[in-house]
Amino acid sequence: MPSALRRHIGQLLIAGFDGHQISPELRSLAKEFGLGGVILFARNIAEPEQVAEVAFDAARLMPEMPAWVSVDQEGGRVARLKAPFTEWPPMATLGRSGDVKLAERFARALAAELKAVGITLDYAPVLDIHTNSKNPVIGDRALAEKAEDVARLGAAIVRALQGAGIAACGKHFPGHGDTSTDSHLELPLVEHPPDRLRRVEFLPFKAAIEAGVATIMTAHVLVPSLDEKRPASLSRKIVFDLLRDELHYEGVILSDDLEMKAIAAGYAVPEAAVMAIEAGCDGVLICSGDHATHAAALEAIVHAVEQERLPFGRVEDALKRQRRAKERFLALPAAAAKPAHGRALRERLGRDEHRAIAEEMARFL
Fold it and tell me: pTM above 0.90?
């Protein structure tokens, strides 16, 4: 095993943390293993200046390979950044409008505000299709009820976000729209046959891939017609054979949070981390601030390589994909420019033209 592996394995982790600044434990983790990125939640956000400072600090935990500073900023009920940031309506409003130009204007405005505070990766757009009115977790987060509409609008959002310098993430492959349970609480079941999945659920992902989407997030769902035993995030048949091989996706594949009960009820987090990388994921999300769990997951990956259970070539491929995406979206080495403060920052958030876009979307609530 290459001796440098231990110093780089952390590139496969996007970690949550507690509080309004980077914790000493996370700094220590980054120093020992490296770090792929951080994810911000409401618990990490006080005011725009503080977000900008923590993003600046987080990105530079590894100067030779900046960390992603990521967030779930979709709009509607999944939005970590509140006023004075623009507060966006749910994405279903774009589907009802059917207006690709409006979707593009929304995405450019969203990107401008994320960039203002140093966020570099947004877990959006949702590419799930709202085909099940009883779905408790997707609902109005989905762009539309028809695959073609989600594909068209989703690809437009990807192009506009990324054209403005924010890495996008299409989620949740192979599709979380037609489920009736919440993967935060239990493992949902998708009972469609492969031909239906290829014809409907995969369509928005294909469009996003054609649009050059930087990352795709896997779903914690069980799809027996594709893999009877393993949830999609841990399934090589789904992650590698379908997304990588059949759909020819060359970007970064990320798991959803491995601490969600859909996974954690059946697998210890460190074991799930190994299985996700083994399946073809290039990074895993572990979203709590439990740094002992982060370290245990990274140790488990190192041990799996040492024991030749996890081929080093698979890890090397994941690291290369991460680097390629970061070279595309992040300054390497990390730029020295300090974040904006005060008026210079605030005037970039909640701008009149951004609020006007939100109001135009809200007409379709």
Answer: yes
